[in-house]
Structure formats: C-alpha cells, structure tokens
Amino acid sequence: MKGFYAKLMCWMLFALTAPAAAFAQTPPAPIAPAAATPAATPAQSKEEREYILGPDDVIEVGVLGQDEFKARGRIRADGTIVLPLIGSVNASGRSVIQFSDDVAQKLKSGGFFAQPMVSVEVASYASRYVIVLGEFAQPGLLPVDRPYRVSEIVARAGGIRPSGANHVILRRADGGAELKLPFDQLATGGDAEDPLVQPGDKVFVPAAELFYIYGQVNAPGVYPLNEVLTLRKALARGGGLTQTGSEKRVSIYHEGKQEKSPSLDREVKPGDVIVVGERFF
What pLDDT score was predicted for residue 36? Predict the structure, then answer.
C-alpha cells in the first residue's frame, strides 16, 4: 500500500510540474520587426538649399576652440581668399559645407590641427543675386542666399507700386521660357504658380496700362487698368458723376476716334479717354 501511495504522489508531482517545464523549454515567439517608415523627402535637396560662394562674398572662417585661427575677408575676383596658416584657398563655386571641408583638410594635412572643426559663415552676400526691375517699391539687385519663391522676391523688394501691372514676369538666366505670373495667384496658388527664382534671374513688373477720365466726375485723372473694367465701373473709379454730369453725355475716345453714348457695359480698353459732359437743365 505504501508503494502505491508513493507512486501516486510521484505521478501528481509530475503532472503539476510538467506544464511549467514545458513552458520553460519553449522559446518565446519572435516579435515581428515594425515596418520601416520611409524617410520624409524634403521639398528641395540639400544642394539646392546650400549657398554657393562666389567673388565679392564676405565670409568668416574659424576653427572651434582655436581662437588664434579666425579670419574675415572678401573672396577675390579670381575666386580665392587668403587664410591664416594655409594661405590662398579657392572658394568660388564651392558650397559653404564644401569650403569648410577644404579648409579642414588643408589644416589637417599641413599638420596644424589634428581634427579641426571648421566653421564658415557668409557675412555679406554679393555674388548671387536676382535682378528686380520695373514697378517695385525697391528695384535693383537683390542678394539671395538660397532659392526664393517669386512671392518672396516681391515681398523682399517692398511689394508692387500702385502704378504696377497685376502680373509679374520672370525671365530665366539660362534663357528658358519667360513666365507671366498673375499677382493674385502668387499667394493663393501652388508651386507651379509661385516658382523658385534662381540667381541671375530677372523679375520684372511692367507699368499698368492706363485709361483717362475727366469732365463731370468727382475724381478726374489717370487710372491703372489692372482688371477687366466696364464703363460703369470706370465712372465709379472716377468718383462718380457730379451733380451736373450726365450718363447720356459720355463719350469715349479710342485711338483718336470718338464713340458717343457708349453702353455702360462696354469694356474699357488701354488708352481710352472717357469724357463726361454736363446734362441739360
């Protein structure tokens, strides 16, 4: 009987410990690696955003932790700049990062520093610019340190004068197709409506086409024709009729020919002269 109970106790002990042993011997299921998230693609490559040095740019060059190596100078017409210890170094046509690497390599190969950390900053941009012409508040040469959108160039040039047309003309330095860009689309459109401007490009705003209005209106004068304008709107632009003015005594002179009593829905054309006569009492 004692033997029977001993066997029974051994069997129960095995039954209780077997699952734990089995669990201990079974390796955990491998965790599947998470799906790789694709890296975000920047709108522009680093090369596009990197400024390219050129003649007349003023740069500051230094080595981290080495106060004795500091230089500030203008890149000469031949594209070189003279730096302490290493002398003349070519800078023109090199990006800021490339030029930093060039200087670091010369300092290292010359035995001046073991692992120099070179910093280069552009103090004054002169070699890369956009030509801004026409009816801008501040026309001239606009230095650029990166590609800018046309809308950004317009803003940096102070905006467009009231006498300017309602579009911008972009002429590429490489002789590409000339682009006529409506001003109202620069702010509301996408990249196609507001393209990048590259150094050497010309951004031009022509003077607006004009029409003239005088006679019995409250504000006679010369007005820009920046939109499709009917005669009715042109009269309103001129301040409306005076108390003695008459819509029936309106004439339009176009290219030297008089058009009497035109429809108020007639489209005003560039160079039109609108004359408002007095009404009969």
Answer: 36
Q: Which residues pair with 42 in a beta bridge?
A: none
Residue type present at position 244: T
259: which residues sit within 8 A by CB, 6+ positions away? 251, 252, 253
**136 and 111 share a domain?**
no
Distances (CA, A) of 43 to 46, 67, 258: 10, 38, 56
- Ranges of beta strands (E only) in the chain are 58-63, 66-74, 80-83, 87-90, 118-124, 129-134, 140-143, 148-149, 167-171, 179-182, 196-197, 202-205, 210-215, 221-224, 245-254, 257-260, 273-278
Q: Which amino acid is at 277?
A: G
What does the alpha-carbon distance between residue 71 and residue 85 come to, in Å, rounded to a whole number? 11
pLDDT in tens, 198-252: 889 999 999 999 999 999 999 999 999 888 899 999 999 999 999 999 999 999 9
pLDDT at residue 281 tops 80: no
| Mean pLDDT of the 2-11 span | 49
C-alpha–C-alpha distance, residues 140 and 149, integer Å:
17
Distance of CA 83 to the CA centre of its chain: 34
Q: Last residue of a domain, which of 124, 158, 173?
A: 124
Q: Structural domain tally of the chain?
A: 3
Q: Which domain holds residue 117?
A: 47-124
Task: Please give the pLDDT value at position 246.
Answer: 92
